[in-house]
Amino acid sequence: MQYIEVVNIKCGGCEESIIDALTEAGLSNINVDVANQKVYFEGDQEKAKEILNKMGYPEAGSKQAKSLIKKAKSYISCAIGKTKKK
Questions:
Q1: Rounded to the nearest 5°, which phi and psi values hold at 19?
Q2: For 39-48, how does the pLDDT look when each residue is reduced to its tens digit (9 = 90+)?
Q3: Is the dihedral of CA 59, 64, 65, 69 positive or negative?
């Protein structure tokens, strides 16, 4: 299992959106550690980074991690995840 440390994960809604998106992309065994801002998974790491970045959860330490646009996108992903949460 591998992981990516990201930024902007705030809650269970974010977690739900991330799991849904990565599962849809064919990754498996996905686990989101909200407290430590880490996404664990099995599959293509570059694909996971690309998807997370597009959703507003860029890799920690990257240029995009400081982007206000990425932060705003993460709030949208969060809201979508909250509406889907069971």
A1: -60, -45
A2: 999 999 999 9
A3: negative
Q: What is the CATH number of the domain that holds 36?
A: 3.30.70.100
pLDDT of residue 34: 95
In total, how many domains does the chain have?
1
Q: Measuring CA to CA, how many Å separate 24 from each of 27, 37, 69, 71?
A: 7, 21, 24, 22
| Token output for 8 | 């902007």
Host domain of residue 7: 2-84
Q: Give the type of residue at 64.
A: Q
Identify which of 41, 24, 23 has the alpha carbon closest to the alpha carbon of residue 32.
Answer: 41
